[in-house]
Amino acid sequence: MNESSAIRAPYDLLRCILVVMSLTHILLFLYNATKLSIYLRNIQIDFGEGILLGNAKRLTNSLTIYPDIKVETVFGVYPPLYQLLSAGMINITGLNLASGRIISTIASIITAILIYKSASTQDKLLKITFPALYLSSPIIMTWGPLMRVDALATMFTILGIYLFMNAPEKLRIPLAATALATSTLTKQNMLAGTIAILIFLLTKKWWKNALKFLAYYSVIFGGTTALITIVTNGQYINHIYLYHLGHEYKLSKLFTYNQFFSMHLIVITTAILFTIYYLKAGKITPLLYYYPLALLFSLSILKIGAATNYYVEPVASMILFLAVSSRKISKKRDILMIAFTLLMVSQFVIYCQNITLVPNIEENLVFSNKQKLLGYLQSIDGRVLCEDATAAVISRKGPAVDWFILAQIFRKHLWNEHEYVEKLIRENFTYLILSFDITPRNASNIENERFTHKLLKEFQENFILKEKIGNYRVYVYKEMKDYG
């Protein structure tokens, strides 16, 4: 038996295992995404879903999502694109989270397709590995199908990078700039891809192309931002930037990187090895700048209220880098290719230890309590201020409130808690529903991130406990004549 035959047998076995694992993990993503959009369409997994659903509902009624908060306490939080698309979907899905979750799922799948098309390996069957690595990452499994802006914003950035590297030369810069500006108009801190391309062009000393790229991007992003700012009488800047400035940061959240790195150990290690190869060979690609910048921007996770959705773009950027670089080791079946295939199998094994399937409502106490809360809200009369924004919006009994941003506004003295509660009383809010005791001394550290002590004190002075629904406490305005 010659050396080639000796290598071929284990390689073909590993190749078969890798393809099966890839297809299985893609199916797991599709299973979770489908279940979230159909069976759990009224149950929020993350508090931000309800905020976006509330804003999409306002847009269906031609109402601004960037008002003066002292007039209407509504928080735009993000640029309008995702919420506009979700508003359109409400006409198809009805008023529920599927209106955004379907958009996010489609965006995640398109990102996976772009990664597949970018894969340069000569083994066409193994190309499926890279989109599978993306979709089955525990980060994408969690956030990819949810009604959050991250999946769509990441898709536009990956599209921008793909177009820059593959579009016809005359269209490359305008198409890439358009996609990347659209990404920033979906989520305002999506700048890693834009900066990466700009650095690449400057490094290559392509000054004219750099200026052209910057001009296209500035016109699209700057023009759209200026237009919305004018239409909203300046409130757009407040909602998208001012209210986000000065967030408190918790260094303890750096420990989330430990989990992130351990879940993506093989992907990260392989990306570093490819980086060393490119640097030694003197080869430069935008991806060499993109994935480190994406990791750098993920440091926003340190701010209060941030979650692991900030890792969506780093996962996409690293796997795209692996896909584009895969040709370097797939020119022939040798020990190096066997090692690479074995590494990818190992990454899926690590994924398996961190992936969970979405449970049924009756199997999950949190989901059951949320369903009971929604049923309760649909059965009562009166305006409701509810911690669970999705339940408030779907029941049409109250607004979606971003408690993190509201607390930030109070801490920056842009408004005060007493005036806010007085406004609630004037607007006849009779119910306050929270998942904890409003006595300030009983509030946990996490609750204090969302509710200032002064706000809890105002609530305590004006609302009284009526009953409990699951783990939720129902408070009513003290001067309400009949609260049961």
Care to describe what's here?
The protein has 22 helices and 4 strands. It has 2 domains: 3-352, no CATH class; 361-477, no CATH class. The chain is globular, with a radius of gyration of 24 Å. Strands 1-2-4-3 form a 4-stranded mixed β-sheet. The mean pLDDT is 90. The protein has 484 residues and is mostly helical. Strand 3 (463-469) and strand 4 form a beta hairpin. The termini are far apart. It has helices at 3-38, 47-60, 81-93, 98-118, 129-135, 138-143, 150-166, 169-184, 192-203, 207-231, 235-240, 255-263, 265-281, 286-297, 312-325, 335-352, 365-379, 389-394, 403-411, 417-426, 445-450, 453-462; strands at residues 383-386, 429-434, 463-469, 472-477.
Quickly describe the structure.
The protein is mainly alpha-helical. It is built from 22 helices and 4 strands. 47% of the residues are buried.
Please render the helix and strand layout as text.
Elements: H1 3-38, H2 47-60, H3 81-93, H4 98-118, H5 129-135, H6 138-143, H7 150-166, H8 169-184, H9 192-203, H10 207-231, H11 235-240, H12 255-263, H13 265-281, H14 286-297, H15 312-325, H16 335-352, H17 365-379, E1 383-386, H18 389-394, H19 403-411, H20 417-426, E2 429-434, H21 445-450, H22 453-462, E3 463-469, E4 472-477
Parallel strand pairs: 1-2
Antiparallel strand pairs: 2-4, 3-4
Structural class: mainly alpha
Radius of gyration: 24 Å
Helix content: 55-70%
**What is the domain tally?**
2
Number of helices: 22
Tell the overall outline: globular
